[in-house]
Amino acid sequence: MNIDGIPTRTLRAHPAQNCIDIIDQTRLPHALHWARVATLEEAAHAIRAMQVRGAPLIGATAAYGLAIALEFEASDTRLHEAASLLRSTRPTAVNLHWALARMESVLQPLAPEARHQAAWQEAQAIADEDVAQNAAIGQHGLKLWKDLIVANGHTLNVMTHCNAGWLATVDHGTALSPIYAAHDAGVPVHVWVSETRPRNQGLLTAWELEHHGVPHTLIADNAAGLLMRQGRVDAVIVGADRVAANGDVANKVGTYLKALAAADNGIPFYVAAPRSTIDFACADGADIPIEERDGDEFRLVHGLDHHGQPSALRQLPAGEDVANPAFDVTPGWLVKGIITERGVCSASRDGLLGLYPEEAR
Known about the structure:
Layout: E1 2-3, E2 6-7, E3 11-14, E4 19-23, E5 34-37, H1 40-48, H2 55-69, H3 76-87, H4 94-107, H5 112-152, E6 156-160, H6 177-184, E7 189-194, H7 202-212, E8 216-219, H8 224-229, E9 235-238, E10 242-244, E11 249-252, H9 255-264, E12 269-272, E13 278-279, H10 296-299, E14 300-304, E15 310-314, E16 327-330, E17 337-340, E18 343-345, H11 349-355
Parallel strand pairs: 6-7, 6-9, 7-8, 9-12, 10-13, 12-17
Antiparallel strand pairs: 1-2, 3-4, 4-5, 10-11, 11-16, 14-15, 17-18
Helix pairs in contact: 1-2, 2-3, 2-4, 2-5, 3-4, 4-5, 5-6
């Protein structure tokens, strides 16, 4: 994707220096800051603290973090300990576990002295595959948009939730990939962007849409249902942190409410996710672990003070009891279709196996 016309990925790998550079997303949308990750602990912190976020980007970062960890020692013990630390950072995003399992399957059979270089090569392969898969999602989604455009004959109004753009992946994004594909193809498109409290990932969506030149409007989360009811939304599209084998979808908390409103108003609700986000070992949404995050994410509001400096404002007393679940689960029957790199399918076991028959057991 582009930042003011400059093609940019969210990760810059430096294998010769055994490090990567990441966009510190905790400083967006107020500042674009690249942070260096040169140790296993820094990689784990970047994932846990949401300096990187979005399931595909978390997976790629974890893969590189494992490669970084093996520079001076690549024994079985070190490999296991490094992978375990990275796995512990975020429970819901299955891409994290998928990427680490893939790395271990490649590295475990190798002699320790061969693992460091092989780890860097496999991490790069994971990153490059993410880019290719997300680009394919964009093209499959664009075909859906063209059907809606023909039917409606006006600017396509798409609503999204959280951030599933290129900031959540290595490039292109998942849910935003079809939107970027449409915009770049000259299709008139406008995006309703939900703020997505309490982490406000919608601000990241607005930031990247602005820098790529895509028309959009930021809305309060609770305005979504009204806009759908008023006929101002043609489709809703979101990403996913995990898709269960039966088509249930875990995504940022608030997604389920949008799916319900879309169903009530006859608006198609799509989920965009690459293969790495589909967990065929997870039977249904009830088996997906829901991450409960620190209550201070809810009690504090982050922004800039009147001097333009980063600041935190306390909106609740420190002792106020709060609940802060990071995700919810949308049942597959509310999902019009899942857009993957292989095409579009129904949100069901049969639909997913139709695209991935090799996963049939």
